[in-house]
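Annotated sample (chain length 144).
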Amino acid sequence: MRLWRGLHGANLADMSRLFLEWREHLFTGKEQMMEITESKAGAALIFSLSGRLDATTSKQLETLVIERVQEGTNRLLFDLSELQYISSAGLRVLAMALKQVSNIDGRMAMCGLREPVKMVFDISGFSSHFQIAASRDDALKLLV
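Output written by the structure step:
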């Protein structure tokens, strides 16, 4: 049990739940989809993601983020309250987004992480690299 805690505080139960969820998504045969909705709140651009952010869908978000940052957007909020699954490819896109906005003195925050998504962030150590809030309103305050 002690060995499992070395993975950023994850325990065997957390790892087992994460594996079972990953296996369920892998073998359900469901179409791999993600929906991205954009909205504005003051200076912040909000990306609301639903579905799965994985190797199949991450390029769509990456392209959109790069376009918006090149247009001058420097405040990004990712609402993940409807995101059911995130893979390492999805984490990579979010890390790239943070780097893009940081390069132009911008800010980025996330909100609404559901338990399976939160576990991936925690186990991977990404939770400590991002500003994460429980609600959209709290996340918007982090972007001021």
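Annotation: Residues 1-6 have pLDDT under 50 and may be disordered.
Annotation: Residues 33-142 form a domain with the Transcription Regulator spoIIAA fold (CATH 3.30.750.24).
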